[in-house]
Design a protein that fits this description.
This protein is an all-alpha fold. It contains 13 helices and no strands. It is globular, with a radius of gyration of 19 Å.
């Protein structure tokens, strides 16, 4: 297992996109600060300058490339030959992408602190009570934790689609459509079928609203029709389900 992890870290370290993508995230955080910094400084700090959207985009690009490229060019055969089991291959990839996700969130927090000290923002007090009757600093930390759970759902979906589709560009495109268009699709789906609303609101696309609802409950709860805890539970369950299905497909896949 340790050798699999070393190989995956080595490959991710030498992918240019893994180094370029965080700068793209920081650029969009700055743009968000310029657009909203003088009117919504506390919300920007809590959401780390809306970094969840950009982290999702980075994970889709980097994660899809990381998972599906080896399926596409059959380099996965070398890994399977050297590994003791297919499970170790899958798990090591999943762990490496998750650690990359953690690093992205840490970068977002650090850069949020830096941006809060610049003229982009009106000064904020990190100890002032903000949402959920908690200090602003704790709001940011808890929102980051919630978004990391949402990120696990995205990673599991990337893994599942990469096992089904042997095309990197197709996996990226489908994931972008699901993550960024999914909330709009599920909203129309839920509200157009009022009799089945109680079932449809539990669809996996609705779970991608978890982070947004956490920091903007009043706007998103009428859309999702689920509480924060229900969204959290659904996100974890779908993450486990997608990962399990992905592994079953990978295990039976012929290379």
């Amino acid at each position: 297992m340790s050798s699999n992890l070393y190989q995956e870290f080595y490959k991710l370290y030498h992918r240019k996109v893994a180094w370029i993508a965080p700068f793209m995230m920081i650029f969009f955080m700055i743009i968000m600060g310029i657009a909203m910094g003088k009117s919504s400084e506390r919300l920007l700090v809590m959401t780390a300058y809306n970094s969840s959207q950009w982290i999702s985009l980075v994970l889709i690009i980097v994660g899809s490339t990381f998972f599906s490229m080896e399926f596409q060019n059959n380099a996965i055969l070398t890994l399977l030959y050297k590994a003791s089991s297919k499970w170790h291959v899958c798990l090591s990839k999943f762990i490496v992408i998750f650690i990359y996700d953690v690093i992205l969130h840490l970068i977002a927090i650090i850069f949020t602190i830096i941006l809060s000290l610049t003229p982009l923002n009106n000064p904020v007090s990190w100890s002032n009570i903000y949402q959920y009757q908690k200090p602003l600093a704790l709001n940011m930390i808890m929102n980051t934790g919630v978004d990391m759970i949402t990120s696990l759902l995205i990673i599991s979906l990337i893994f599942l689609l990469s096992c089904i589709i042997n095309s990197n560009s197709a996996v990226i495109t489908i994931n972008i459509l699901i993550i960024f268009m999914g909330p709009f699709v599920t909203t129309n789906l839920v509200w157009s079928k009022s009799n089945a609303m109680n079932i449809l609101k539990w669809n996996p696309l609705n779970m991608t609203n978890l982070t947004q609802q956490y920091y903007n409950y009043s706007s998103y709860h009428p859309v999702t029709l689920l509480s924060n805890m229900q969204l959290l539970t659904g996100t974890i369950l779908y993450m486990l389900l997608f990962t399990a299905f992905g592994y079953l497909i990978f295990r039976r896949k012929r290379f």
